[in-house]
Design brief:
This protein is an alpha/beta fold and 380 residues long. The chain is 36% helix and 24% strand.
Length: 380
C-alpha cells in the first residue's frame, strides 16, 4: 500500500490543476447545457486517466449521467459522485477559484468536485501501479444530486444492488475529515389547503378559511418533531390568501422532514400523508414523500468503516473518525442494498456557502484511502 501513498503524494499539484479545470466549468443542476458540458469533460478525462470506458445514461429533465467502468470481473465495486452544484451560472465572477493558505476556494470545490478529482486519481494510481483487482470498478457521475437525484436514483440503486461495496465521495464531516456512517432520511411535502372564500366583513359565515386550517395543521405538524428519536418536521414556507378582507380560499405550506430510522420514516410519513381537515368544507391536497430513506449504521457498514480506519492509521498516519448527519446524499439510496461508506471526499468546509473550500494537503491521502479500499475489497 505504501506505493499508492507515494504515487498520490506526488500527484498533489496535478490534482489541484484538475480541480481548477472542473471548477471553471460551471455546472448548476438546473442548467442542463452546462452540466452536459461537464459530463462530457469528465467522460473524456476518465478515459485519458484510466483507460476505462463510459456510457451516457439518459435523463428526461436534466443532462446525462455518466456510468464509467475500469477493470474486469463478474463482481463490482461502486463509486458514487455528482458533478452538479448549487451555484448558478456566473458565480465565478464574484467567487473565483483561488488558492490561499493551503486551501482551494471556489464554487463546487468541496461539494463535490474535489471528491471527483480524488476518485479519478485513485483509479489512475491502481492502473499505473499495475494493481490487479478481481472486480471491476463502476464509477457513477450524476447531474442531479443537488435536486434530490430524481432521475439518477434508479441508476444508482441498480448499480448498488450488483456491488459488493459502495464508496460515496461526498465531502467529509468536520475539520478532521470524518466519514459519514449514518444519515437521516429526508422528505419534502407540499400541502395545499382549499377553503371557501367570502367577504370577511359582510358574509364571514359563508367562508371557510384556508389560512386558519393551515394554522391548525402547522401546529399538528410541528408536534410530530421528536428530537429524542432524531425526528424533525419543519414547516419552512407558507403562503395564502388574496386580501385582508377576504376569507382565504387557498393556503400552501412546504414541509421538510428528517428521520433517523426506517421505522420512524414509516410512522411519520403515514401521519403526514393521512392528514384530515378540521372543517368539512375544506379540502387538503398533499404531495411529496420521504425521498431519501435513512442510512442506518449496520454491522456491515461498521466493518467497512473499521477497515478504512485501520488503513488510515497504518498507512496514512491519521485517526479516521465517523459521524452521523441530518443531511441526505445518494448513500441513503445505496446503504440498504450494499455496505456503504460516505464522506470519503474532500476535507474542508463551506458546502453551499460563500467560503466553500477544501484543504489541499488532504487530497492525496483521501485519494490514497479510496485506492486502498478498492484494492482491499477488489481483491477478495
Amino acid at each position: 500500500m505504501d506505493d499508492i501513498v507515494r504515487y498520490l503524494q506526488d500527484k498533489e499539484g496535478e490534482m489541484v490543476s484538475l480541480l481548477r479545470d472542473l471548477v471553471l466549468i460551471e455546472s448548476p443542476s438546473s442548467e442542463p447545457h452546462l452540466t452536459e458540458k461537464m459530463g462530457d469533460y469528465l467522460s473524456e478525462k476518465f478515459i485519458e486517466m484510466t483507460g476505462g470506458t463510459y456510457t451516457k445514461l439518459p435523463s428526461d429533465e436534466y443532462s446525462s449521467h455518466i456510468r464509467a467502468e475500469w477493470g474486469e470481473g463478474e463482481r463490482q465495486l461502486l463509486i458514487v459522485t455528482h458533478f452538479d452544484t448549487v451555484w448558478p451560472e456566473g458565480t465565478l465572477e464574484d467567487m473565483p477559484f483561488e488558492i490561499k493558505d493551503g486551501k482551494a476556494y471556489g464554487p463546487g470545490t468541496f461539494d463535490m468536485k474535489g471528491g471527483i478529482v480524488q476518485a479519478l486519481y485513485a483509479i489512475q494510481s491502481l492502473k499505473d501501479l499495475n494493481k490487479h483487482l478481481n472486480k471491476k470498478v463502476v464509477f457513477m457521475m450524476t447531474s442531479d444530486e443537488e435536486l434530490g437525484s430524481p432521475t439518477s436514483k434508479d441508476y444508482i440503486m441498480a448499480e448498488a444492488e450488483k456491488s459488493d461495496a459502495v464508496f460515496v465521495l461526498e465531502p467529509s464531516q468536520g475539520s478532521q475529515g470524518a466519514l459519514k456512517t449514518a444519515r437521516k432520511g429526508v422528505g419534502t411535502y407540499d400541502i395545499t389547503i382549499h377553503g371557501v372564500s367570502s367577504h370577511a366583513g359582510i358574509e364571514p359565515e359563508k367562508g371557510a378559511s384556508a389560512i386558519e386550517e393551515l394554522a391548525e395543521q402547522i401546529t399538528y405538524l410541528s408536534n410530530l418533531t421528536d428530537l429524542d428519536k432524531g425526528t424533525s418536521v419543519n414547516v419552512g414556507i407558507i403562503d395564502g390568501g388574496s386580501s385582508k378582507n377576504v376569507i382565504a380560499e387557498e393556503a400552501h405550506a412546504v414541509v421538510d422532514v428528517r428521520v433517523q430510522t426506517q421505522e420512524e420514516m414509516d410512522r411519520v410519513a403515514l401521519l403526514i400523508e393521512q392528514i384530515k381537515s378540521h372543517d368539512e368544507d375544506i379540502q387538503i391536497d398533499i404531495e411529496g414523500e420521504i425521498y431519501r430513506p435513512p442510512l442506518e449504521r449496520t454491522d456491515e457498514i461498521e466493518a467497512l468503516f473499521d477497515r478504512a480506519s485501520d488503513l488510515a492509521r497504518d498507512y496514512l498516519g491519521f485517526e479516521l473518525e465517523e459521524e452521523s448527519t441530518g443531511g441526505g446524499s445518494d448513500a441513503n439510496f445505496t446503504a440498504s442494498l450494499s455496505p456503504t461508506l460516505d464522506g470519503l471526499g474532500a476535507v474542508g468546509d463551506g458546502a453551499h456557502a460563500q467560503h466553500e473550500h477544501l484543504i489541499i494537503k488532504d487530497m492525496p491521502r483521501r485519494s490514497a484511502l479510496l485506492a486502498m479500499l478498492l484494492c482491499e475489497y477488489g481483491s477478495n
